[in-house]
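#lab-general

N.A. 3:47 PM
ok so I finally got the sequence cleaned up, no stray characters, all 152 residues accounted for. can someone with queue access submit it? mine expired

B.Y. 3:52 PM
send it over

N.A. 3:53 PM
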Amino acid sequence: MGFFDKVTKAVGDAVDKTKREADQFMRIQKIKGEIGEVERKIAGFTAEIAQVKADAGAKAIAMLRSGGLNAADLQPLADRVATLEQQIEAEQAVIAGKRADIEKIKAEDEQPAADAAPPAPPAVPEAPPDTPPPVPETVPLAPPPLPTEDNK
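B.Y. 4:20 PM
back already:
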């Protein structure tokens, strides 16, 4: 493999790695966005629980004052709180799954891709950089002929 082939391969490998990293980043960001949506749902459920509990408390106080506290009147509110708490648990499981997906994506970068060629070995210089290039061997030339009476 010639020098330019090695350079072309190295550039191609770098581009491929950058593409993989960009793809992983985008996939992770998408999942983080999905986690944010689920967390907003949980916050809504939590706020609704707080409201239902406040309503239940207000209703209980009013019933106590009137002397007609009946558990059946509060049961729908308790059921709603239980339902919301179950929804929160389900959404937290979704978040845990998405976080596991992120970890899998991050782990992909640590494992060599199955279809990728093994990394090229580092280029070995032909001579150490501080070694001057070899001097070509010279062949001594024969001395010019001496002038004679015939070639004057």
